[in-house]
Every structure is written in structure tokens, then in C-alpha cells.
Specification:
The structure is a homodimer.
Chain A (H helix, E strand, L loop, with lengths): L3 H8 L22 E3 L6 E10 L10 H19 L2 E11 L4 H17 L3 E9 L3 E10 L15 E5 L4 H10 L6 H12 L5 H6 L7 E3 L4 H12 L1 E6 L7 H4 L3 H10 L6 E5 L4 H11 L3 E10 L7 E4 L5 E2 L13
Parallel strand pairs in A: 3-4, 8-11
Antiparallel strand pairs in A: 2-5, 3-5, 6-9, 6-10, 7-9, 8-10, 11-12
Chain lengths: ~325, ~325
């Protein structure tokens, strides 16, 4: 059994920025606090996520994938704000300090961190039921931040990438439905190794109005933009982008996965109709497909549903699907 | 059972700063990220702590005390850096969403947060074994930050308040030793409701050299200053300040509690001998007693212990006590 301090040293501190990060007085691991500042004229965008075994990942998850995913879901929040990643802290409760597990976990974590230039600047480790809590820090000019309350009537609603693969993968793992080996690998990769849309978030600064990342499913997450912006939306469920693998599953499962799936970590954002070409160009520049799925409409009124769902033929649909909510049975 | 979002709304968001914190563009709970900046010319001091049931608190802890302690131990890290509290995030895993528990927990948390003007700006809640992860943010001019690597040969070593009461309280709860009802209440208060030394940390800016907060015990924590500053220390164990209640326990238990106790959340700091009057005045100004317990000595050499322990008569002591380490059995 490793002691706490040798554990931190061996797997985290040596790959973190131990002391000064730069010439600006910033300070990393090894003191009571880290010291960090946003870029001049900008603010720090801060997000925190807690991942629990059995809830956010299976007990037998590959620790390399877990290290990747724990940071990816946090970077996804920075992406949704249009913020540029700077640093993160990691608090870790572990039932035991297994060296092979920690080596693989820290490899998965740092491979992603290094790709985004995101330094580990602090943390905590303790014995306890497996729990990962990360807090990430990005830098963004406040007037360019992609806020949830910034949607406007007439805005298009856009989605990056494709939705539903992660939920399809969960269904295969749970035995809810089957897929062939290649499609299963596609789904499982989406579930275990989501890619945060950081470059797209940055490219959408000054173009998009509102944005968020899809962690709990489109149906539930889009509501957050509508509630905070006090608006309604109309969405064409058949326009929601799906992978070729997902299109091979039955149509009702496709809808369930794309609309109420969760764990997609794609961006959902709104932008003025006049900016369609700019949005397409931003997506093309960073190599992420973007798809229009609906429109933001009138100011909110409580006597009708916040989202009007319709199919490609314009027929209204009644959906009872909900994004999952962590204290509901699901 | 409350759903996640109504839970957040009822107990946390309504007492948090929901949208704008000020005129500077800062943003609180309700978006993908909070937006925060340090004061002009300063940096954000950032610290994160994870508290686990059975490890950092007993399962039957009063939830009001737990809310207090969870934030207090984080504010203590800001104090040890000389930083002024600004904000915090809270990630919470709960086995169930019990309203009475959440009401008391959030009361304890916000009573302390409001006293220090520290806003809740973000968080996460999930089902899982009870786990609290807080990240706190303070503001400090980097050149005035009280860093662990800043001790100098000849510095005095100082302690705020008294040490050992929290460990004495743990011993009473565990049945390791007994105390009368009044002393037990004193010990238990120290264990459950530590007061972060924020005002003292601010008062020591520009006076103290190195500082840290005592969370794992003086013997272990002082080593962090010595290792980072590459120096030795000499400590008079009889000078270590103790409460009247602790002085009523046997002498060997007093030493064990003060030197290897943990959970004190007092500051240990170094300052030049020429600044003794200034240190005393800073303590008096904020109403926190400060006591000199030793001296920082020569540059480090590996052939002798980092800390030379002696009693009031100058007799050297050999101590095998260690601050506890979270992955050791203790």
C-alpha cells in the first residue's frame, strides 16, 4: 500500500507543474493553495463535476478511459462557455491505492490534459468509496462567454457532432439491445472517451448566442437554455444528427438515445439565422460537423410545453422522454 | 425523494448568487461555468478538499456542524496563503436526498460562508456514498502570498491559537481517554467547528515568510515547510500552546494531541526574529493569540532529522510521532 504522499508524487505531481507555471507568479501543486489568474482582461470560467462508481461509470471501467472521461466532461463545460482551458484540480477518493490502476488512470488523464495545455494545479486524495471530483479553469472574455441566458427569438438551434451513441453503448452493455462488434465499439468509444468540443466553443465566440453541453440528454438540457432565456423552442426530431451505427438500431431506440440519452458531451447552441454561414464555417474550420435542428421562438408562457417537438413532415410529437435526473431512478 | 434540480434549488441556489455577482461580469450558479476574476493586480488562490464519511467525520455527525466544517477546512487553506475569501464550489454525493439533513447542512455551510462573504458559485450533486468536495477561491497579491517555500534561516516558528483539542475530542469519542463534560464539549467543538484563521492570514501579509495550516498534525505539517524551504527546525515541545482543557489530560496524551493530532486548522508560520513585535501586534489586532515555539535553522542536510525536538529545559527528545497520512492505517 502506498502512502498518500508517495502516491501523489508518483502519479500526479511529477506530471503536474510543481512550482511556478510561468513568470506571472502562478503556483501549482505543493502549497496550501494554487495561484492562478485569467488572461489579462478575461475572467476564469470554473466548473466542477463529481463522478461516482456505479452512477457515472461501471466498476470494471478501463482506468485509462476513466482518467480521460473525468477530465473530458469537465473540459466540455469550458467548451460550452467558449473558454480556453488553463488548469484543473483533482480530488480522488480511492478504496485502495493500486499502482497499476493509478498508472493507467493518470495516463488517461494527462494524455488529455496535455493535448489541451491544461495543468494539474492542486488536489486531494483520501481513502473512501471511489469518487472523482474535478474542477476546471478556463479563460474567457466575459462579453464573449456563451451563456445559457443569451438565446434570442428567431435563433437557430444547432448541435455539434452526433447524439445518442453513448446511450446506445450503455444499452448494449446493459443488454437492453444488441449491435454488431463494430457498432458496439463505436458506441462504447462514445461512452468512455468523449471528446470535449473545446475548439468549437472557441470558434463560436462572437457568433453563437447561448450554448451548453449535452450531458443529461437534449430534451432535458435544452430546457435549461429555454428557462434561463425565458423562451420556447421548436425542434425537428428527425433532423437530430445520428451516427451511421445508431441509424442501424430501431427507430424508437434512435429517438430515445438522441433525445434523452445523456453523456453525449456535444454542444447545443443558438445563433441568429443571419449567421448560418458563419456557424458552418466555424464548424468546418475545427473539423466538427454542426447541424441545425430547430428554432427558438416566442417569449415563454406557462400554458404550453417549452419545447414543441415535430417530425420531418412537420407533424407534432408528444414526447414523455426526459433527460435523466441524478436523484430519479432511471 | 427530491429530484436533483429541486434539491439544488431548495437548499443551495436560493442562498447562492444565482446570476451576476457584481458589475464585473462575474456569474454564479446556473450555467455551464461560473465566471470569476481576482481583484485587479491579484491572483486567485485555489484549494480543494474532499471529505469522506468515516474518514473525516463520523456517520452520526450533526449535519449543521458538517456544513460548517466542510467549508472551514477549505477557508483555512486560504488563510494559510494570506488570501481573502471570494467564492466556492460544492460537489456533493449523497446516498439519499433527506430534506432535514440538507436543511441543517446548508444552514451550517451558509452561516460560515456569509460571515466570510464567500459566495457559492457552482457545484454538482449526485447519488452515491456520502462525499463532499469543496473548492475555494480567494484573492491575493502574488508577492504577498504566504508560501511554504519562503522560510529563512533564523526565522521564528509561530503557532496561532492552541493545538490538540480536536485530537483530544476524537480520543474521547473513540474511548481512548476520558474528560469531564465541560472539557469534552471544548474538545468536541474544536473537532466539529474549527474556525478558519482568515483574519490572521490577512494580517500576516508582508510580515510572515512561510505559512501553512495544521490539518495533519504539527510534526508532519511543519516538515512541508522545511522540505519546500530546504531548511531544518528546532521546536520546544513544551512551548506548543494548549488549552486549559487539554492541560488536564495526562502529559503524554497532551504531547500526542499537540504534535501529531491533526484537524487543528491553526496556522503555523515563520517570521524574522526582528518582526516579533509586528507578529504579536497582528495577532492582537485580530484577537488570535500567537505563540513562538521554535526556530528555523541551517540549510537542510540529509544526515540528521529535519526537526530537532527539545523540552523546556533544552533536553533533546526523540519523537516517533507522525502526522497521519490518509492511506496509512491509523
Amino acid at each position: 500500500m502506498l502512502s498518500e504522499f508517495s502516491l501523489i508524487d508518483r502519479f500526479f505531481a511529477r506530471r503536474a507543474q510543481i512550482t511556478r507555471l510561468g513568470d506571472d507568479g502562478s503556483l501549482g501543486i505543493g502549497d496550501d493553495c494554487a495561484l492562478l489568474a485569467p488572461r489579462p482582461g478575461e475572467m476564469l470560467a470554473i466548473s466542477t463535476d463529481m463522478l461516482v462508481e456505479g452512477r457515472h461509470f461501471f466498476p470494471d471501467i478501463d482506468p485509462h478511459a476513466l482518467g480521460h472521461k473525468a477530465l473530458a466532461v469537465n473540459l466540455s463545460d469550458l467548451a460550452a462557455m467558449g473558454a480556453s482551458p488553463q488548469a484543473f484540480t483533482l480530488a480522488l477518493a480511492l478504496p485502495q491505492a493500486r499502482e497499476d490502476w493509478l498508472a493507467a488512470f493518470s495516463d488517461g488523464l494527462f494524455e488529455l490534459a496535455e493535448r489541451y495545455g491544461c495543468d494539474l494545479i492542486g488536489g486531494d486524495t483520501t481513502a473512501g468509496p471511489l469518487n472523482l471530483c474535478l474542477t476546471v479553469f478556463g479563460s474567457v472574455p466575459p462579453q464573449l462567454a456563451l451563456r445559457r441566458d443569451a438565446a434570442r427569438p428567431g435563433d437557430d438551434i444547432w448541435i455539434s457532432g452526433t447524439l445518442g451513441d453513448a446511450r446506445a453503448g450503455l444499452g448494449v452493455l446493459r443488454g437492453e439491445w444488441q449491435a454488431d462488434a463494430a457498432d458496439t465499439a463505436t458506441f462504447r468509444r462514445a461512452l468512455e472517451r468523449p471528446e470535449p468540443r473545446v475548439a468549437l466553443g472557441l470558434a463560436l465566440r462572437g457568433i453563437a448566442h447561448a450554448a451548453l453541453d449535452l450531458s443529461d440528454g437534449l430534451a432535458g438540457d435544452l430546457l435549461h437554455i429555454l428557462e434561463r432565456s425565458d423562451l420556447h423552442a421548436s425542434v425537428d426530431v428527425d433532423a437530430v444528427p445520428r451516427s451511421a451505427a445508431l441509424r442501424r438500431l430501431p427507430a424508437d431506440i434512435q429517438r430515445r438515445c438522441t433525445l434523452a440519452g445523456g453523456d453525449d458531451y456535444e454542444l447545443c447552441f443558438t445563433a441568429p439565422a443571419a449567421a448560418r454561414a458563419e456557424v458552418e464555417a466555424a464548424g468546418a474550420r475545427v473539423g466538427i460537423p454542426v447541424t441545425r435542428i430547430g428554432t427558438i421562438s416566442d417569449p415563454f408562457s406557462a400554458d404550453r410545453p417549452a419545447i414543441h417537438w415535430q417530425d420531418a413532415a412537420g407533424q407534432p410529437l408528444t414526447l414523455t422522454l426526459q433527460g435523466f435526473d441524478h436523484f430519479h431512478a432511471d
